[in-house]
Amino acid sequence: MCKLCGPKKVIVTETGFGAVFHPCPNCKTGTDLTPVIKRLERMVQDAKARLDARV
Ligand SMILES: [Zn+2]
């Protein structure tokens, strides 16, 4: 397991706008990360949509 990203192979950076996902530079596995990142991004967008609906 990678020290930097754990089992995820993705680095998550929290920003004022939400979370940003990067492929882990330690793992450098590249292409197979895309589905994982897409899924995480969709989770963030769903969460944002829920927040927007509440305001
Ligand atoms: Zn890693």
Percentage of residues in DSSP E strands: 15-25%
Assembly of the depicted chains: single chain
Which word captures the global form?
elongated
Strand adjacency order, main sheet: 1-2
Order of helices and strands: EEH
Number of domain modules: 1
Low-confidence stretches: none
Fraction of residues in H or I helices? 25-40%
Indicate the radius of gyration in whole angstroms.
Answer: 13 Å
- Give a list of the ligands: zinc ion
Q: How many β strands by DSSP?
A: 2
Termini gap: 40 Å
**Chain-averaged pLDDT:** 82
* Class of secondary structure makeup: alpha+beta
Total number of helices:
1
In this structure, how is the largest beta sheet organized? 2 strands, antiparallel
Q: What's the gist of this structure?
A:
The protein is an alpha+beta fold and 55 residues long. Helix content is 38%, strand content 22%. It has one domain (10-54).
